[in-house]
Amino acid sequence: MHERAIALELVCCPPEDQAHGSTTMLSACHRSSPDVQPDLLDNETTMLVHIIYTETAVFLSKKAYASWRDIQDEFSNFKASLGPWKSDAVTEYLQDHYSDLAPPAATQVAELLRADSVFRQLTFLA
User: Fold this and answer.
1) Which of 21, 67, 95, 120 is the most buried (most CB within 10 A)?
2) Are strands 78-86 and 119-121 parallel, antiparallel or unpaired?
3) How much is the pLDDT for 28?
4) 3-state DSSP call for residue 54?
5) CA dist., res. 14 & res. 84, Å (int)
6) pLDDT of 94-126, one tens digit each?
7) Which of 74, 83, 80, 12 is nearest to 47 (CA)?
8) The pLDDT of residue 3
C-alpha cells in the first residue's frame, strides 16, 4: 500500500474570504452549520462540503456535522477538518493546494455531490 504524507495548512475561512495568507489554529476556525442539510440545497455549487484529514488519507464529506468533534467520532484517526464550505470553494481550495489529485479536484468533488455516499476519499497520482 502506497502511503502519502499529508501536509495541513490550517485556514480559518474559505478561499474566497481569506485575508492574504492568514492562518490560525484549526480548532478556532472550524465552522459548522448544523441546521443546513445538504439534500435541501438547490444546486451542487451551494452544497456544503467538509475536507477531512486523517493520519492516512483525505476525505470529502457532504454530511452535516454539528461540530468537529462529531467528525472526530466518525473517523478514528482524525487529525483536522476544514469547512463546511460551498462545494465550489472546496474545489478551488483543492486545486490551489493539491496539484497531484487524480482525477482533478473538480471531478472528485462533482462525483461526491452526485453519489449516494456522503464520503469520498481523495485520490492522488501515484
Assistant:
1) 120
2) unpaired
3) 31
4) strand
5) 9
6) 999 999 999 999 999 999 999 999 999 999 998
7) 83
8) 47
pLDDT in tens, 43-72: 555 799 999 999 999 999 999 999 999 999
Per DSSP, 34 falls in state T
Of 101, 87, 20, the C-alpha closest to 58 is: 101
DSSP bridge pairs for 12: none
CB-based burial of residue 7 (10 Å sphere; 0-12 exposed, 13-18 middle, 19+ buried)?
exposed
Return the beta strands (E) in the chain as ranges. Answer: 48-54, 58-61, 78-86, 119-121
User: Which residue bears the cell 493539491?
Assistant: 98
Distances (CA, A) of 1 to 4, 27, 39, 60, 124: 10, 31, 35, 21, 13
